[in-house]
């Protein structure tokens, strides 16, 4: 039986790559048990960081809460800030916390004991160098999805290099992780060398960024560069391909998800290039009118029915089930997306559908497309970081 691979507890944390952690922990606290624990932990009245964090790590470990130490670290950093956490670390005997700080750390760790994902507790999470606001029950972006963005950005940056514009539809935007990051990664325009030098001297920030990007392009073998503004695949050409308009329509049937995407798009300065609709993908065609896209991208709900009972408490208790459940075989929303795709994609062979799915799905999707005359062709499957087949590329025939 295959399961989705990332856990919500700390799933977006880039330095830890965890697999198969959707599986329910054998020793899962009941609410009654949690209440009895909270009596204990309310007695943690120390005002020393090390004493509090060590007590909490032990407490969470006793209750088999995943990633106890990292959870406590994130919570402490959230309350104190990274710098103060570092300053306080290791000082065993000081009273280095105020009463209010100690109370806050205890309160948030108590939530973690109740299996609330740490992303919801601290209210934000990192997705490929973006810090996004998180809000229950909106789906927490998983690290594999960062790779979907990489694959899409790479494909469209190269394939579309003759065109200045790239537009896509995201189905099921959740917190906005995919659409915001893809918009940042596929920005491009052509620029002459003479223009590059003029841009360097002007006051316009975007122009200066394009100039910076030009030099990155020229010295790409020497430098590895990521920035808030420019994060793209470098193309070997005398012109620079940077900083123009990728546009996007993003839809989600959950109103909270649409609002969260809007807020995150504002935070990331891409709100002028994104149009949001609250809608089910099955009702999207009238909303789009005659607009056509270069790509449709989605990480849809795809957990098959039989796997839903195996989800970790962090997921089953706190994340929106409609963001997870994909019907009996996990393919309900995938099929809905494929049915509307021919009417939405631009009529050329570069137009693509990109899907993140369960490892059992690529083969089933290929067969389904072959048995339905939709004008689509299964093109390729890409692996995630655990080398498992997770991303499907489908093109127009
Ligand atoms: C797995 S989450 C992905 C969220 C986000 N794209 C990400 O990767 O972090 C799936 C999202 O699809 C939305 N959704 C589920 N069924 C849908 C449907 N039929 N039409 C539109 N959105 C849907 C859910 O509300 C949820 O936000």
From TrEMBL:
GO biological process assignments: methylation
Protein name: tRNA (guanine(10)-N(2))-methyltransferase TRMT11
An annotated GO cellular component: mitochondrion
Functional summary from the UniProt entry: Catalytic subunit of the TRMT11-TRM112 methyltransferase complex, that specifically mediates the S-adenosyl-L-methionine-dependent N(2)-methylation of guanosine nucleotide at position 10 (m2G10) in tRNAs. This is one of the major tRNA (guanine-N(2))-methyltransferases.
Gene: HEMK1
Residue span, Release factor glutamine methyltransferase N-terminal domain: 55-123
Keyword Methyltransferase: yes
Residues of the Ribosomal RNA large subunit methyltransferase K/L-like methyltransferase domain: 173-302
Keyword terms: Methyltransferase, Transferase
GO terms of molecular function: nucleic acid binding; tRNA (guanine(10)-N2)-methyltransferase activity
């Amino acid at each position: 039986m295959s399961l989705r691979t990332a856990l919500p507890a700390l799933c977006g944390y880039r330095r830890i790559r965890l697999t198969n952690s959707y599986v329910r922990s054998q020793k899962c606290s009941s609410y009654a048990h949690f209440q009895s624990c909270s009596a204990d932990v309310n007695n943690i009245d120390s005002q020393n960081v090390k004493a509090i964090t060590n007590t909490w790590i032990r407490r969470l470990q006793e209750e088999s809460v995943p990633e106890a130490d990292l959870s406590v670290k994130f919570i402490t950093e959230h309350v104190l800030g990274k710098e103060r956490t570092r300053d306080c670390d290791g000082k065993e005997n000081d009273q280095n916390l105020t009463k209010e700080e100690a109370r806050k750390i205890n309160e948030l760790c108590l939530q973690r004991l109740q299996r609330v994902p740490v992303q919801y507790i601290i209210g934000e999470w990192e997705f490929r160098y973006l810090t996004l606001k998180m809000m229950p029950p909106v789906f927490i972006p998983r690290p594999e999805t960062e790779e979907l963005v990489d694959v899409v950005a790479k494909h469209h940056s190269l394939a579309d290099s003759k065109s200045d514009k790239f537009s896509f539809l995201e189905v099921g935007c959740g917190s906005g992780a995919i659409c915001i990051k893809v918009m940042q990664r596929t920005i491009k325009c052509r620029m002459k060398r003479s223009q590059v030098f003029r841009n360097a001297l002007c006051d316009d920030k975007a122009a200066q960024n394009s100039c910076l990007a030009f030099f990155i392009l020229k010295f790409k073998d020497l430098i590895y560069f990521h920035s808030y503004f420019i994060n793209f695949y470098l193309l070997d050409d005398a012109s620079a391909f940077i900083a123009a308009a990728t546009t996007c329509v993003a839809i989600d049937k959950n109103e909270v998800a649409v609002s969260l995407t809007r807020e995150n798009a504002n935070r990331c300065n891409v709100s002028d290039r994104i149009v949001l609709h609250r809608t089910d993908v099955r009702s999207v065609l009238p909303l789009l009118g005659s607009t056509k896209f270069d790509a449709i991208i989605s990480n849809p709900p795809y957990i098959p029915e039989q796997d839903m009972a195996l989800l970790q408490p962090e997921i089953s208790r706190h994340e929106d089930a409609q963001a997870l459940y994909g019907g009996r075989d996990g393919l309900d929303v995938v099929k809905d997306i494929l049915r509307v795709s021919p009417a939405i994609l631009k009529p050329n062979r570069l137009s693509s559908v990109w899907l993140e799915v369960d490892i059992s799905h690529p083969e089933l999707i290929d067969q389904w497309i072959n048995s339905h005359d939709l004008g689509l062709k299964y093109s390729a499957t890409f692996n995630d970081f655990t080398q498992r087949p997770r991303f499907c590329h489908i093109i127009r025939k």
